[in-house]
Amino acid sequence: MLHLILFLFFGAICVAGAVNLLAQSHPINSALSLIVVMGSLAAEYLLLGAEFLAAVQVIVYAGAIMVLFVITIMLLNAGKEERTQGSRVAIVLGIPGVLIGAVLVAWTLVGRSSTTQSVSIGALWGAPKDIARLLFRDFLLPFEVTSVLILIAIMGAVVLASRPEGGARGPRKDEG
Amino acid sequence: MIPLSYYLVLSGILFVCGVLGFLIKRNIITIFMSIELMLNGVNLSFVAFAAHWHALSGQVFVFFVMVVAAAEAAVGLAIIIAVYRTRETLNVDQVNLLKL
Fold this sequence. Notes:
Chain A is mainly α. Chain A has 7 helices and 1 strand.
């Protein structure tokens, strides 16, 4: 019973943050509500027993990635978004289309609900020890490939964000 | 005990909110945040299925999704900064050419 109450509480916070992200017109407000969504998702992960993922969610998503977003918003001095003709067309066509898709997904879920049983809570399936065993044994090659991906992403970010003035783009590649 | 469908419905709501933001938002940074919201919704369904089937590899997949999302955020925000330097705007309606 307590699990259900906690699930509903954090789920309500999560949905409220997501709706607030859509409703706000200033990007910094959207970024802060996205942090709320990610924090409550970490609590949902804890309810599912994924303690390692909850910690990673807070550190990587709510910490690193969102700091990157907030810094970019402040660096570019992003103001309120202005409405144009194209955005009104997107609202008129987009909202019904997305709602139809959502109803289809919900209909499929409810129709197959006989196969979905209860999720066992608190079995501590995401202990860091078990994840590490899986990550460094079965998924060792993908793990190493992601390190190469991160390296390429760092170099790409440095090259893309460097100032192109004075033909400095070529030599900058060597620095990064 | 919480039914699995509750978690799937929550992740579906998050994904739909992300798609909606992707469609109706005009600020390129907010569009990028909507993509992150969609990734979070998918991650929640991964974790719920991992707990349901007692398969820990679902959580490892979420870990990889987070790593790829971090790389994507770094490169994407660098692209946004480069676009802003050349166009002086963040509105996607005015960024309609790939050419600099």
